Amino acid sequence: GTPQKYDPTFKGPIYDRGCTDVVCCILLVLAIAGYVVVGIVAWTHGDPRKVIYPTDSRGQFCGQQGTANKWVLPGAPLCSRSTSPPPPPLLVSQICVSKCPDRYLTYLGAYSSRTPADLQYYRQFCVPEFGDLSKPPIEVLKDKECPAMIIPSTPLARRCLPAIQAKKGVIMVGNETTYDDGQGRRRNVTELLEGARNANVVLEMRQLAMKIFEDYTVSWYWIIIGLVIAMVASLIFIVLLRYLAGIMVWVMIVLVILVLGYGIFHCYLEYAKLKGEAGSDVSLKDLGFQTDLRVYLHLRQTWLAFMIILCVVEVVVILLLIFLRKRILIAIALIKEASRAVGHIMMSLLFPLCTFFLLCLCIAYWASTAVFLSTSNEAVYKVFNETACQFSGQTCKPETFNTSNVTKLCPDAQCLFAFYGGETAYHKYLIVLQFFNVFMFFWLANFVIALGQVTLAGAFASYYWAFKKPDDMPAFPLFSAFGRALRYHTGSLAFGSLILAIIQVIRVILEYLDHRLKAADNKFAKFLLSCLKCCFWCLEKFIKFLNRNAYIMIAVYGTNFCTSARNAFSLLMRNIIRVAVLDKVTDFLFFLGKLLIVGSVGILAFFFFTQRIKLVQDTAPPLNYYWVPILTVIVGSYLIAHGFFSVYGMCVDTLFLCFLEDLERNDGSAEKPYFMSPDLKKLLKKTNKGQPEA
């Protein structure tokens, strides 16, 4: 009869296992609960309108329902600064208006005008309570009910900024070079330039953004077609690796050898050509250092040095090729096997979309919580005045300000909105809550990535440890691996992602300190900070490498994080040469694949959108900037190729660790047969005794 299915003595991905790192799992649940509480508190106290909408001098939002200065007029109400004579005095008020002023006009001029329409026009730029048009202008200006003058302005970011323009090199505002400041003096419009220095830049950026948006509206479906082409090309490349991986690797190796050989030949030709020329026999030592590097190319000694270096590199490459040829063949065989595994688990290519969706949720929750926390402050009012006053700059309350002693001692003082802040315990600990928000974002984002890695590793490990491939595989290997990861190993994933999150938060703190120290002259502090940044960058890279392999061992054995990390690291160190060879071979193939996919799709998009393909010349949409869809297709193609190759890379790493475990644990006997593919067994001259070949 047929032999019994091999039952391994260790726990594989399709066998029973227990929960690991339960303490970390509980800690993660508590942290998430605390994160939810922080979010609720932030959403209760925060108000994003403080970021979106401007406020008037009373702290009320311009154009919002339920405020005293809400005017139901056409268009979105904008916030206009009253322009008291520049340079501005201590008191500068903001008033909500329905539209920006479009002409030069002073209040005194509007009041004394024989045309009532001027005063009615000016009234819309006064405080909402102002209604007594017969009130003397001196009293109106003293009470700050209306600005002293208005100038032609342009709406920008819900604010009115001077409509500055340049005509024949002359700075003008409303076709004028001077204006009346409302106090009987003529001023040059260049005095307004500082207050609206960035207005034209922002306006041009907005026009650029509108043109880019128009390009997207007419080319979005062609962009989608380009991304679909990139997706199909990535899939085809992964499938072809099963047949072309060996050819591509050996062709690359031969090309490297040939290029080095040509370099040696070229150096010899240059060395021989310079023989007998004047000055070519000067030594590098006698010449010394020269800023013009072309001088060295006229020396024979330079080309002799180049030739010797290239000869050494050529010999090293050939020796490595001779001694590592078997390991290169193993790497190629593993890459081919990974292509077969991906072919049997095609759903794995779509799994990064799940990880991407979860990451988007983390980013959205973090961003919204950060915005609500940053807008949780309360409106702070302070005393503003134009003359000397002992209460100037002190906090005040608008409700009781008019009955306080401040107005008696400083008649021209006003209680106006200054900024958002607060003195309660909640406001004092806002920075702590923001820090917790950042920390939880890193922890959850790393957890989501770890969950994706363990899921893929479990699915591909179930392929490797199936004695009869693919008959012994689970019915739904990807979903089975996902369920095992969440049910048994949430704690281990939380542990690994917690370590990485702590390191990343430290790096963020170091970047913040580096930003604050840029203006400082303490060179030792800058040097120390640079060293710390470099060390923690290296540490983060190492922890990511260790976590990735630890997650593979968790998926295979079901052990806790520390045990898996130790076993994975020891296993890789015992096979360090194989690790290095496989890593470089896969890096080359992935680089080649991304270059081919992104380059081909990008070139196709360039020829299409620039209407250089005659067959579809009339189909290409008219564009303001043809580089907009081209760059979008290129970036999108890279992200798609990176997503596909990340799955493929995880498959290669998983099969590699399983292959090393297979070699160390099994000997090909009936009790311990090899699970590797027939190609690998043939390459290593291994056979299974007493068991039929898989």
From TrEMBL:
It is found in: Cell membrane; Mitochondrion outer membrane. The keyword Nucleotide-binding does not apply. Keywords: Antiport, Cell membrane, Glycoprotein, Membrane, Mitochondrion, Mitochondrion outer membrane, Phosphoprotein, Transmembrane, Transmembrane helix, Transport. The chain crosses the membrane at residues 21-43, 220-240, 247-265, 303-324, 345-367, 440-467, 488-510, 550-569, 589-610, 630-660. Its main location: membrane. One of its GO terms (molecular function) is antiporter activity. InterPro entries: Choline_transptr-like. It catalyses: ethanolamine(out) + n H(+)(in) = ethanolamine(in) + n H(+)(out); choline(out) + n H(+)(in) = choline(in) + n H(+)(out). It is a multi-pass membrane protein. One of its GO terms (cellular component) is plasma membrane. Belongs to the CTL (choline transporter-like) family. Choline transporter. PANTHER family: CHOLINE TRANSPORTER-LIKE (SLC FAMILY 44) (PTHR12385), CHOLINE TRANSPORTER-LIKE PROTEIN 2 (PTHR12385:SF34). This is Choline transporter-like protein. It comes from Anseranas semipalmata. The lineage of its organism: Eukaryota, Metazoa, Chordata, Craniata, Vertebrata. The gene is Slc44a2.
